[in-house]
Amino acid sequence: MDDEKMEDSKLFLAETDEEFARKSAYVKMAPFYAKIIKAKHFLDSHGTVAERESKAYDSKEFREYIRKLDEATVDADVLEAKRESAKREVDIWRTLSANRRNG
Q: How far, in Å, CA of 72 to CA of 103, rounded?
């Protein structure tokens, strides 16, 4: 591993901090957003509790939210994996650099 690769890894980590934080926060907040959307459509529906709940889950807004959540979850997981790889590359570079200084 050379210095240029390590610098690229550090730059990638620095440039993706906010993006990763935002995507992770969106995924973490999912249960709360889902409850809000469900409640809104539940209250607007008529019928038994089961029927109203089914209508809420089948609403266009809820289905679209779940689709977006699916994409966001995949994006966050992929970005997290890439960031973990970059962190490992920096750690490897540090180890190799220390070994060169001591060896």
A: 46
For residues 11 and 82, the answer to whether their CB atoms sit within 8 Å is no
User: Could you give the CA distance from residue 63 to residue 34 in angstroms, rounded to a whole number?
Assistant: 10
Contact 62, 30 (CB under 8 A): no
Q: Which of 93, 95, 86 is nearest to 14 (CA)?
A: 86
User: What ranges do the domains of the chain cover?
Assistant: 3-102
pLDDT of res. 103: 66
pLDDT (tens digit, 9 = 90+) per residue, 1-15?
Answer: 688 888 999 999 999
CB atoms within 10 A of CB 103: 6
| Tokens standing for residue 9 | 């890894």
Structure-derived torsion over alpha carbons of residues 70, 81, 31, 45, reported in degrees to the nearest 10: 0
User: Tens digit of pLDDT for each residue in 78-87?
Assistant: 999 999 999 9
